[in-house]
Amino acid sequence: MAPKRGRPRQFDRDVALHTAVMLFWERGYEATSIDDLSAAMGIGIPSLYAAFGSKRKLFDEVVAEYTRLYRSFMTTAIAEEPTLTDGVRRLLHEAAEACTRPGLPRGCLVISAATNTTSPEVEEGLRKLRTDGVDVLEGLIRQAIDAGELPADTDARALAHYVCATLQGIAQQARDGAERGTLESIAALAMHAWPTTARRRGKAPTRARPA
User: Fold this and answer.
1) Are 65 and 17 spatial neighbours (Cβ–Cβ below 8 Å)?
2) CA distance linking residue 153 with residue 145, whole number of Å
3) How far is CA 203 from CA 84, 140, 181, in A?
4) Three-state secondary-structure class, residue 148
5) 206 alpha-carbon distance from chain centroid
6) pTM for the predicted model, two decimal places
7) CA distance 31 to 122
């Protein structure tokens, strides 16, 4: 006897997920209820749980989808530029653009969703995303020091924290209503603190690109 087939879902899961991204991005984790999600996604609560498991599991998918769609510029900006200095400059300017895109919530979901949650698991997951970013950037800075692009006495850890703090500040300022031009000015000012000794001696060496 053939097994019974489950009732097919009457909604587009990808569309529903993207709707959840927008809602969590706008309101944060704590302020977004299951009822809010059900209404915005256009599906009943039982169907929502059947498709995504729980609010917590849905949020994990939301963060992954948000990262894929709206945070990919962070790795692309650095990877595509010939030097880390150019990559970080581009990263900060593109953050100003990304946080103020017309038709999208202001700021960054990873930053805003962490400010109003009482869930230790959610808070820890978002913190790990941010600290991982610091670790990756610190590694790139150390490579740039070894390659002679940055001065040998550069504090790689502090510089990585500085860049990430600037990114978080841009996101929060955007959330508070700052316009793109203002945020781009912040990005430009932030680069004045970037070590430039190697550049004053001549053109900074380019980074090796993966084969």
Assistant:
1) yes
2) 8
3) 13, 19, 29
4) coil
5) 26
6) 0.84
7) 13
- Contact of 50 with 12, CB cutoff 8 Å: no
Instruction: Tell me the residue ranges of DSSP E strands in 90-187.
Output: none
User: Which pLDDT tens digit goes with each residue over 140-184?
Assistant: 999 999 999 999 999 999 999 999 999 999 999 999 999 999 999
**DSSP collapsed to 3 states, 93-112:** HHHHHHCCCCCCCCCCHHHH
Nearest to 104 by CA among 2, 208, 180, 207: 180
Residue 167 contacts residue 180 (beta carbons within 8 Å): no
- Show Cβ contacts of residue 170 under 8 Å, excluding neighbours closer than 6 positions: 92, 95, 96, 99, 183, 186, 187
Rounded CA gap, 117 and 211, in Å?
43
The residue behind tokens 């500040």 is: 169
